[in-house]
Each structure stands twice: as C-alpha cells, then as structure tokens.
Fold:
Amino acid sequence: MSVMKVNKDNFNEVKNSEKTVLLDFYADWCGPCMMVSPIVDEIAKENPQYLVGKINVDNEPELTMEFGVVSIPLLVVMKDGKIVNKAVGARSKEQILALLQG
Structure:
C-alpha cells in the first residue's frame, strides 16, 4: 500500500478507517522530516494492515491546528478515530513500528 496524501477533504475517510492509521505531519523545509519520510514510505509498503498518510503542515492549517501540532515531524497513531499514540521528532523504523503496535 502506498502513502496517502491527507488533506481536509479526505480526512474523514482516514479518521473512519477500520485500519490502524499512521499520520506523518511534515514540511518540505524540515530536515528531520526528510529523514523520517522514506521510513514512513517503507512502512506503508511493507504493512498493508495500516493506513499511512502524510499531512503537509504548510498546506493543511486546519488539520495542523486540530491536532495541536507545534513541532514536526509529528507521528500520530489513530484507532477507531481516536489518537492512541504520538511522537515528536525523527524516529527509527523500529520505534515507529512500536508506536503502531501500542
């Protein structure tokens, strides 16, 4: 499965997903975000049981505010429409998978 570009128009589809959701809040100018991005892509390809989405904080101010994003990269895990885990800053693949597994 590939990474979904998440925006305010398709967010309800993401929020209501039956799968566990991983959201990567990022910006194109953010160095640590660029380190996390390929890891998130890899997790999406290798783990079809998860819905993986990326949210550009510069393009999606409503979602950025809704999630209270103050630092990026921010990784958010959602189940049944609720936030169950989050982590700020660059993380390894193992750390991100551990977030998903709760």
